[in-house]
Write a structure and sequence with these properties.
The structure holds 2 protein chains of 2 kinds. By secondary structure, chain A is of the alpha+beta class. Chain A has 3 helices and 10 strands; from the N terminus they run αββααββββββββ. Chain A has one domain: Immunoglobulin-like (Sandwich). In chain A, helix 2 packs antiparallel against helix 3. Chain B is mainly β. Chain B has one domain: Immunoglobulin-like, CATH 2.60.40. In chain B, strands 2, 3, 4, 5, 6, 7, 8, 9, 10 and 11 form a 10-stranded antiparallel beta sheet that branches. The longest helix of chain B has 9 residues. The radius of gyration of chain B is 19 Å and the shape is globular. Chain B starts with a strand and ends with a strand. The relative contact order of chain B is 0.23. The chains are: A alpha+beta, B mainly beta. Chains A and B meet through strand 1, strand 3, strand 4 and strand 7 of A and strand 1, strand 9 and strand 10 of B. Strand 3 of chain A pairs parallel with strand 1 of chain B.
């Protein structure tokens, strides 16, 4: 499957301020008060657009990835192509997941994406988030089961997120294997690299640093953190 | 159907936390954790919630640019005074070399300055700086440790050419204080893709002291975050 990052870039420009908030469309006086959360993701890299992010609200027992463990098929697809649909299907099928939300727009370097969601109160409420660094083979960033239940109204939590390597695709950096604008190559490929485990990412080498077959240059290098997430309970 | 449609919009972030602290005596110790990068004079400021010396994802102010490109704190000090901040400029009285620490004190008694920010240029870089953006100062007495990252002001191409250029909108790096820079480089990079303040991608450098793309030495001047440690003691 080949994903058109270019198409996503176009939609990123077109998406402006449309807000559709889920839930809360009935007037049941007996229902518990819903809690509103505003979540802002900022891309802190120089030249790594972030694929349309997916947010998962869940309780204890769901973890979207673990270092040292093979990525799920959904995470593999997200980290190699930027397509979060399978990741979302896996989350929706998990008994501890309350809701998922996904965007259709990229978060370009320096840009922020904010969305607001209303949720029924849960004492074990946690947030996970995933998005691909698209000018890489299989790098992603996000949140892994961050507890947010203790946030009171007006509280906010700021989290700086590092880059992970899904460990599902060799970091060749060739144009044919980089789906982002730096390569325009293949996204998802079901073949897995031999190590096949999630780790922290070691960064990209690039042609500017001697990897002549790389489609990347010095502008695509990154250091942690690569993203900032501000979680605010309204 | 669990999936909800969400919306995306660019929004400024207001970092408002519940105000619980009362003003207090603070000691701030900053250590340069890098292998080969000097910090120019640091600005250490306690201030109120709406004040920011910089914000990632936002454009650098002209005064932040002057600091990041040339180490000039003059404009940011004016900003700090205007914001009624409690601040110390240049606690190390000059450069803070790799591995070195400096301590300074802030007395915020009688103020509402409950947030702490720090900036200082990293040399040799074009517009890199060590930064801490507005952390809430804990109210309980104790010792608190923070790790600081390297930011790129997004205002100057990271050409890595050491030519004395330190004024805003003047290309080039002022100096390599360690005496370990090269000369004659062609230039390592054009303008930043991200022109907002962002996490610095690191310098490239090379091993050609009299040419190549960069006047920086890739064996000496590279770093990984964090680049500084800050120990905050609340009396």
């Amino acid at each position: 499957m080949k994903l058109s990052i270019k198409q996503m870039l176009v939609s990123a420009v077109m998406v402006s301020t449309v807000l559709v908030v889920s839930g809360c469309n009935h007037d049941d006086d007996d229902a518990p008060a819903l809690a509103s959360y505003e979540i802002t993701l900022t891309n802190l890299t120089n030249a790594q657009p972030l694929s349309p992010p997916i947010w998962v609200f869940h309780g204890d027992g769901y973890m979207p990835w673990q270092v040292g463990v093979a990525a799920t098929a959904g995470l593999e697809m997200l980290a190699e192509s930027g397509d979060s649909s399978s990741f979302g299907t896996e989350a929706d099928a998990h008994s501890e997941v309350y809701s998922t939300s996904s965007s259709s727009a990229l978060v370009t370097p320096g840009a922020s994406m904010t969305y607001t969601v209303m949720l029924a109160p849960q004492t074990d409420l946690q947030l996970s988030l995933a998005t691909m660094l698209v000018n890489t083979n299989d790098a992603f960033t996000g949140l892994n089961a961050v507890a947010i239940a203790s946030l009171g109204s007006g509280d906010e939590q700021v989290i700086y997120a590092g880059a992970y390597d899904a460990g599902t695709e060799e970091n060749l950096e060739t144009a044919a294997t980089i789906p982002g604008p730096a390569g325009g190559g293949e996204g998802f490929n079901a073949v897995r690299e031999s190590s096949d485990q999630v780790t922290m990412h070691s960064g990209v080498v690039t042609m500017s640093d001697g990897l002549s077959s790389s489609a990347l240059d010095q502008s695509h290098r990154f250091d942690n953190p690569v993203a900032r997430v501000v979680i605010k309970r309204l | 159907m669990k999936t909800s449609h969400i919306a995306a919009s660019a929004l400024a972030i207001s970092a408002l936390l519940p105000v619980t602290a009362s003003a207090q005596d603070l000691t701030v110790q900053i250590t340069n954790l890098t292998h080969g990068i000097h910090f120019t004079p640091l600005l250490v400021a306690a201030h109120e919630a709406p004040t920011h010396l910089f914000q990632a994802g936002q454009s650098a102010s002209a005064n932040l640019q002057a600091m990041a490109e040339g180490g000039d704190l003059t404009g940011l000090e004016v900003d700090a005074i205007a914001a009624n901040a409690t601040y110390v400029a240049n606690p190390a009285v000059g450069l803070l070399a790799p591995g070195m620490s400096v301590s300074t004190m802030l007395d915020t008694t009688g103020t509402s300055n409950r947030y702490l920010s720090v900036v200082g240029m990293m040399l040799p870089t074009n517009d890199g700086f060590v930064g801490l953006d507005s952390i809430a100062i804990p109210s309980a007495p104790g010792t608190y440790t923070f790790h600081l990252n390297a930011y790129d002001a997004g205002t100057e191409a990271n050409d890595e050419i050491i030519n004395g250029g330190g004024m805003p909108n003047t290309a080039g790096i002022p100096v390599a204080p360690g005496g370990d820079g090269g000369s004659g480089a062609m230039g390592a990079a054009g303008v930043d893709s991200n022109t907002m303040v962002h996490i610095h991608r690191g310098v490239l450098g090379d091993t050609d002291a009299s040419g190549g793309n960069s006047d920086l030495d890739s064996r000496i001047h590279r770093w990984l975050n964090p680049v500084a440690k800050l120990v905050l003691t609340v009396q």
